[in-house]
Amino acid sequence: MELNVQDRTTPPPVVVLVRPQLGENIGKAARAMLNFGLLEMRLVAPRDGWPNPAAGPAASGADVVLEQARVYESVADAVADCSQVYATTVRKRGVTKPVVTPEVAAGEIHAGPGRSAILFGPERSGLETDDVAVARTIITVPINPEFGSLNLAQAVILVAYEWSKGVALAQPPETELPPVAPQGELDGMIGQLEEMLEGVGYFFPPDRVPATKRTLRTLLTKPGWSSQEVRTLRGVLSTLARPRGR
Amino acid sequence: MELNVQDRTTPPPVVVLVRPQLGENIGKAARAMLNFGLLEMRLVAPRDGWPNPAAGPAASGADVVLEQARVYESVADAVADCSQVYATTVRKRGVTKPVVTPEVAAGEIHAGPGRSAILFGPERSGLETDDVAVARTIITVPINPEFGSLNLAQAVILVAYEWSKGVALAQPPETELPPVAPQGELDGMIGQLEEMLEGVGYFFPPDRVPATKRTLRTLLTKPGWSSQEVRTLRGVLSTLARPRGR
After folding, report:
1. Contacts of residue B61 in chain A, CB cutoff 8 Å?
2. Interface predicted TM-score of the whole assembly (ipTM), two decimals
């Protein structure tokens, strides 16, 4: 059945727990999510495997979230079908990405179009720089600068709570902006470019390669290109990669 | 010293835990409070007395809140110096009092004048009717009607979070986005790319050239890249344009 414009709403965001450590905290995050109507949890490389017997009791009845949780090997895999990826961080980092509050992020997620993913890091250390690089936008909870001690479930509940406020208000997007391409399509383009650059010796010296790749990823993630735009750029790259001299 | 109008701010609200059961939950509530700048906790008839050795470890460093916590025999005693008393409840009750969200309550608390108190009930049962009767207003967190499972610390953190939004400490984090490159720099990059693409026969058929160039310009203008990002991309293009086969 085809939906008409009135029926079209932005899907709820996916909560991605990146390398979570304790099953108990996964359960608490599930409980926090379901309180505010979020159902879809994805787990990237959970430390103690999955399923985890400690998760259920901590979920206090939010079993439906745990039962449907899916496991991925990498952040890129977990967000491949998502158009907009947010990384939650506590500290400011030296990254040139927009930083928004949970409130602003919730508004953006409702505005859509396309599905969003929200990344939460491991309990102790938070997200690594490479995880953050996948995201277009950073969510930072404005917190007491002298005492910032949010645990995983608390960070999840604040973001879920802000999202839930907009559910009743959610309107179909007014503008006809094309949806942002799923992250997997962008990754494909970035991979193609990196391969070309490797072939011509761009990545040098070797110890700078990860930083250079992050820089490229960041600036190519920034635009929020549509699928059509990504296809156009891949065509450009393919043309540039063709043998020359003809 | 008398404060003038500009200096006069409404004091932060007092968090009143009514007959709390577990010391651990008192500690978690303290942690939730301090994250969002609330310092004053009052305890009404804590079940296991006070101080409670289980509270400290659960507070994760929010000791200042626990050390200053004061114990009262009744709700009435605990809120005697407060101008506005809120009772947090999950369910609607048969009481004829205004029911507001944490967001609305936070706005009222900031508007003042006078100090506010927010009552939170025991973990299992919530506030009794007699406790609610002391309050002028009820705070209810809008929650998933099919799964309402907020624990004490979570209820506290949502209310504290909403309050903190109205305070100076709750400024949205500054974004460190670099300025967008002047159009001339972008044009330089677009010109470089077009020249490369002309060299490899990308623009074909001829009657499509203007539309294709517009498409490329549109998608390269969309990001709002900084000067540094434009320079990086020009470096990428220069590398790709170098003679190959070496």
Report:
1. 147, 149
2. 0.75
